[in-house]
Amino acid sequence: MASRRPSKTDSSTPRLSEAARELVIPKGIVTTGWPRIEAQCALMGVRFDRWQQGVGAVAFGKRKNGKYAATVGGIVLSIPRQVGKTFFVGMVIIALCILFPNTTVLWTAHRVKTATKTFTTMQGYVRRPKIVPHLLANRSNGIRTANGEQEIRFRNGSVIMFGARADGFGRGFDQVDFEVFDEAQILDEAALEDMVPASNQSKHPAGALLFFMGTPPRPKDKGEEFTLRRADALAGRSHDTFYVEMAADDDADPDDPKAWERANPSYPHRTPLEAMQRMRANLKDDDSFRREALGIWDPAGTPEVIDSASWSSIADPTSMAIERITLAIDVAPDRRIASVSLAGRRADGLWHVELDEQKKGTDWVAPWIKSRAERNRLHAVVVDEMTGLVEERRGRHFLIGTDILVTLAAAEGRDMAIASGQFFDAVMESSPRVRHTDQPQMNVALSVARKRPLAGAWAWNRKDEDADITPVVAATLALWGAQRDDVQRPTRRTGERKAVVL
Prior knowledge:
- This protein is α/β, with parallel strands linked by helices.
- It has 2 domains: 2-247, 3-Layer(aba) Sandwich (Rossmann fold); 308-482, Nucleotidyltransferase, domain 5 (2-Layer Sandwich).
- It has 15 helices and 22 strands.
- Helix 6 (189-195) links the parallel strand 10 (178-181) and strand 11 (209-214).
């Protein structure tokens, strides 16, 4: 059955039951083969943390018939990066190869790069002084590094073979005793059809074991197998699967070290603060960091914030703003693309939003806004403070490289939350107060826009890291600015001319 994680009971390394957010244990375990494996690891100079000992005790738990309780469903580890799952599984596999002669192991990853990296890591493990004597005594010390034939061979006939599933590795093997599916978040049924039958003729006395280890899949990943195994375990539909999930709380702040500790039982005693900070610096996207570093799964079937039917119902190809014309800018987190959207009030008093322009990069934005300001009387230019397109001079904020005054919207504060709520209300209330021109870019952006908690409310978030929501974020800020009176006027120009930005 599944159990929620209790609080840690002391300051030492946590037990498995304390470290795991979700823990599903196979039924019928009466004994375990773990002590023998742990003893062999000790002879190799390897000691495990308490949570790792717990994983080992259950993973090699046996029923009355002497077979592993997880021999059918497998061992599924949803564990963030930098926790030590490769070290733990790698050392256990090496111990098994030493303890049981003629053991065959397949270690697979989705990508060649990952498979090769793991092979390199494992070479370092087996070259330890207390392990290397067990390797095959030949010129290469049992390590074969040829492409497509990456192997570690032992004196007693055991072998660990490495390869990438994307290249078809695993087809045609038989009598395989242990299979490790690294990057299990990218694992489809076809790959399993290639590899799982290889274990059907295992000679291992307690049965074959399959290890599935990875992080929560991205929406674009072929993660149906990993996702299905998790769903079955948590729903109690699988009685022979060992499932471990380590993760922070769903609403955790990605920058909170307490969330890092909740997700990672190796932090900070084995995974230092600097390692987590480095990962955060390289995974700037919050969604990516939540999956990779905090182990948080995306909510299943997260719905669109504004459904296509509601959005389509307020489309008006002839819609046009004639006053309080406001431009707003949003830039994608990786800065590969930027959008300028427009909002204003129509002649009938309703509000209007549209995408003004969208291009790759950001160099074009300031000249574009400047040309609009020179030809039109703008109510405001709103800029997300995180875009990097604002400079401060004499205590005032200007669009970079120009004399255009901008109104700042705090990206991580109340401004963005208020703007998002106002945009939603203007579209979704019983008598919508906004119209748009049915632009494809805006429609697509809205279809991949989701929510993230912010300042006690919510703000826009991307469905995944490949989604571009800059048009809708810019439109949201533009509408927010158009409806406010306390904005910075972009220029000092006077006059009554009112014009639509073209």
